[in-house]
Task: structure prediction
Amino acid sequence: MLRNASLCLLATSLVLVGSSHAQNANPEDVGLSSKQLALIQQAVQVNIATGQIPGAIVLVARDGKVVYTDAQGAADPAGKQPLKIDSIFPLASLTKPIIATAILMLVDEGKMGLNDPIGKYIPELGGARQVRVLRPGSPPYPYSPLPGPLPESSEYGPAQFDLVPALREITVRDLLTHTSGIQEFGVGNDFPNPTPGDALATRLPKLVAAPLEFQPGSRWAYSNGWGFDVLGRMVEVASGMPLNQFIKQRLLDPLGMKDTDFGVHRDAAARAVSQFGPRVQFSDEVTYFSGAAGIQSTVPDYVKFVQMLMDGGRANGKQFLKPETVKAMSSNQINWLRMSGYPPMAMPAEGLRFGYGVMLVSTPAAAGTRLPAGSFGWDGVGSRRWWVIPEQRIAIVMMAPLIGPMAAPLHRMVEAAVMSSIITSRP
Result:
């Protein structure tokens, strides 16, 4: 536990690498305890010291005021690149809530509908589709935590499938809620390979060759890559603008997110955290604007987006989303469907539900978190995540390097520290 005496003693004895701190409000002024928030710094230190993560950046805000920001450790296990508060991370799946917001903005404007079929925007993917079904008596296909081709089972032999017609077309709602049947984790499929110069408009129609993994709307299964890339193309068709331009003009610029883009601006290369290879991807080189995982940003930038959602879709005097749309976005939209397969955010699925592009806590004890029911947010590659706690008007943004669930213990510790810091509740 965070208050464990030996853990805290270890934390206070550590020497930090690349530590920096900033805030623009006194925690007590917004009803939070500085002493309890200091446990966050100790938790990060311990996770670095034990080799769980090389570093992390954590930001906490309440009522729109940043009360805790800290960057500790390094961007790589070798400790060659110290993390700073303005370090630029590949957001990975933290891109998805931004794309979901873009879709919902167009829905608010009457340019899209949640029940619109996929073929309205990408005709090649409309009409009759095939669903792949495990043949009765067939060996099961092996599970993998990552998408892509799977090795055959040496014990039972390859899985056998039948193809059956889809009962209906995929809708915008299906894609936003991961109930479309496109790309389930742990399943190999005939997805199109990237080619140089690809764009959403050229690659996504090739998805027609890949069967769906289940009937649309019948299951929840995380569509890691393709589902939100399809939504990105839908934004382009409905708005008449390339996805990067729409996101920049309608969200990033009005929110003041100057360090956020598909790729890294060349003058900011020194601040980039290399995640998916040794080379930084520059924004002026990107042609394929992945709605699933293409955006890069900083913690101080991303919290502006998170704060806008917490404030009912409003920021800087502008209404980005209707308040009722934000409410729907952060409410259960999958009804009784269980969030099966890929473990969302390294948390037990039994205590979680899903809205439009974001996950929400339904039963805190079952989800293994101190956050109250109704809290919502999302995860990127297991090591970046954010939360909004509506009833307390608190926002949390956390980013750590590397890929995988190694940051999960830190995330749970930060959540506990923030909840324990509350002195005065909000109505």
User: Anything to note?
Assistant: The radius of gyration is 21 Å. Confidence is low (pLDDT under 50) at residues 1-19. The chain has eleven helices and 15 strands. Residues 1-83+401-427 form one domain.
